[in-house]
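wait is this the right file?? whatever heres the structure
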């Protein structure tokens, strides 16, 4: 705290000196060794230098990266769950696009499919975190890890029809992947169906 208030006082002093020496409103004679200010001028110098010092210290004290408490980042685990939900939507949208306009896909669309496949594979790693921490039942946890392994294999297998620009082959893998992703999210439910 002492270092912080010392830096503010030093900033105020520097700002006050700069303000006094460059202010056209203050009469300064070169032959004066001491300057006499009226109360109004002194108050003006003090307010402006305090404001500048506060602004300078406030701007420099904010961190470059925000943390969870600032509300800018999701906590670990929730962030992985959010990515998995987002990938579920993207994967479903890919299936719709393949069915609706797959024959019309151009190079840009096929490049996006490759990005989605890489995203699916990396999201499967996030799904491992979710399964490890979010499924307490050991049997369901084991089943979740098996599903995740199949999802990663499906993402790798989808490279072949993507490289050949085979819409029907990719659509078969997409349907299987969508089924597996939905099955994974079903395992996360811990409420019995009878309720």
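ok assuming it is, sequence goes like this
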């Amino acid at each position: 705290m002492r270092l912080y208030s010392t830096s503010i006082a030093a900033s105020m002093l520097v700002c006050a000196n700069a303000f006094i020496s460059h202010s056209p409103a203050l009469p300064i004679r070169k032959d004066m060794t001491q300057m006499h200010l009226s109360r109004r001028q002194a108050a003006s110098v003090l307010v402006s230098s305090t404001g500048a010092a506060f602004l300078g210290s406030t701007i420099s004290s904010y961190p470059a990266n925000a943390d969870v408490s600032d509300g800018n980042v999701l906590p670990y685990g929730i962030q992985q769950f959010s990515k998995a939900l987002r990938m579920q939507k993207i994967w479903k949208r890919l299936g719709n696009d393949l069915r609706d306009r797959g024959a019309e896909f151009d190079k840009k669309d096929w490049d996006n499919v490759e990005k989605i496949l890489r995203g699916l594979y990396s999201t499967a790693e996030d799904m491992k975190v979710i399964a490890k921490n979010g499924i307490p039942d050991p049997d369901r946890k084991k089943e979740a890890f098996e599903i995740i392994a199949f999802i990663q294999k499906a993402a790798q297998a989808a490279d072949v029809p993507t490289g050949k620009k085979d819409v029907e082959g990719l659509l078969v893998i997409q349907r299987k992947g969508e089924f597996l992703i939905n099955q994974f999210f079903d395992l996360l439910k811990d409420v019995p169906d009878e309720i």
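The chain has seven helices and no strands. so i think its the right one actually
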